[in-house]
Fold this protein.
Amino acid sequence: MGTVYALLGAAVAVFLAGAGSAYGVGVAGQAAAGVVSEQPEQFAKVLILELLPGTQGIYGLLVGFITLSKVGLLGGGTVEVSVTTGLLILAACLPIGIVGLISGKEQGKTAAASIGIVAKRPEQFGKAMLFPAMVETYAILALLISILSVSSI
């Protein structure tokens, strides 16, 4: 049963962080498409801003891989996981899952607003990048706590 809990933790990390990224990239992509239809020369700048919310999904996937490796499923075997250890791993995966979901969605909204800045003032691209990057900070913190927690169990 411990292995089931650990796998549930991996699934939570991947699913929630991935859902947040999918939503965020979608919101930013809608804004980017509008800008590119009017100003095709801004494609590269708005593409960078659109891709930013996608990192949370990558972070969740990384924690998922670390978890699968921890329980031996990536090495071809299986490690016996106690119920307590499985629950600890599940808990360790929650930070990136929950924060990834929320920050991915919010970063998408912030990236969409920054895309609006680029549409009106392309020379302000550097400043526009800072707003979604601030949201990214919290996803990175959650990633670190999940990695450190899973690795130390």
Q: What stands out?
A: The first helix runs from residue 2 to 38. Residues 121 and 128 are 10 Å apart (CA to CA).
